[in-house]
Design a protein that fits this description.
about 280 residues; 10 strands; single chain; binds D-glutamic acid
């Protein structure tokens, strides 16, 4: 059981991701909720999570949540589909009671699936990492919230490495974007809404839009998650009142800080100050 200190002070909202992808979520959250403080933790040393097994992703994610709790966060957003798919439910149902039942951990899948009510035909596509797709979390959540919807999923294992190597334009990226979008439309030609179910994928949006060619609407998660967080905070004053306001964002990484700053620039369009920590 976690034995870190429990503080009654208000603290930043914790944002956890395997690495950089969660920065796309943080960017949208900060645009919508600029007054709060945020503490971002990227487990870059152990990323990517998307190709790892269930148990490993769960363990790594729990390490991240513990760390953010130990730093005072009352609310942690898992800004990573893979972590949300493979760890969120167990952390909420099993671990939270032992860690601190008054704190909260939220993910990105539920708000995204709620936003699928925009689909006219109920024929939707979900693109994600192999871990997210293998978990079937999107299918299960869609079945719960939109019974009768037809969901087609495609794992896109090469998209995260493309983004992390800043290969988001050019022929190589185009080849692999066309390949997975082609696979989706082959399996489901009538799909009318496509979920980018990985926080890295918005960086490939121009190529994805080109490949989709107007055949379907594309849902990115940043604004959806930000809206859902704003709604959550308005409904939970007991959590909201413990989230500090100062408009700051603090960044932590388990990898080399210089490397983080370089890649964070691609995701945020700004330079950030980041500190290294070990969490395992
Ligand atoms: N950010 C993760 C997600 O949204 C993908 C990156 C990884 O595989 O670690 O699924």
């Amino acid at each position: 059981m976690w034995t870190g200190s429990i503080s009654n002070e208000s603290a930043p909202i914790g944002v956890f991701d395997s690495g950089y992808g969660g920065l796309t979520i943080l960017k949208s959250i900060r645009a919508q909720l600029p007054d709060y403080d945020y503490l971002y933790l990227g487990d870059n040393a152990r990323a990517p999570y998307g190709t790892r097994s269930f148990d490993v992703i769960y363990r790594f994610t729990l390490d991240g949540v513990r760390e953010l709790f130990a730093r005072g966060c009352r609310l942690v957003i898992l800004a990573c589909n893979t972590a949300s798919a493979k760890a969120l439910r167990t952390i909420q149902q099993r671990d939270l009671a032992g860690l601190d039942p008054s704190r909260r951990v939220l993910g990105v899948i539920r708000p995204t699936v709620e936003a699928l009510s925009q689909s006219r035909t109920g024929n939707v596509g979900v693109l994600g990492t192999p871990g997210t797709i293998a978990s079937r979390s999107y299918e299960m959540e869609i079945e719960k919230l939109h019974p009768g919807f037809k969901t087609t999923t495609v794992a896109c294992p090469l998209w995260v490495p493309l983004v992390e190597n800043n290969e988001t334009t050019g022929d190589g990226a185009k080849f692999f974007v066309d390949k997975y979008i082609g696979r989706l439309f082959e399996a489901a030609p009538d799909v009318d809404t496509i979920v980018l179910g990985c926080t890295h994928y918005p960086l490939l949006l121009p190529l994805i839009e080109e490949a989709v060619g107007g055949r379907a609407r594309i849902l990115t998660q940043g604004e959806i998650v930000a809206r859902s967080l704003a709604d959550y905070l308005s409904r939970h004053p007991e959590i909201d009142s413990r989230c500090s306001r100062g408009g700051s964002a603090t960044y932590l990484t388990t990898e080399n800080p210089e490397k983080f700053v370089g890649l964070a620039r691609i995701f945020l369009d700004e330079d950030v100050t980041v500190n290294h920590i070990d969490i395992n």
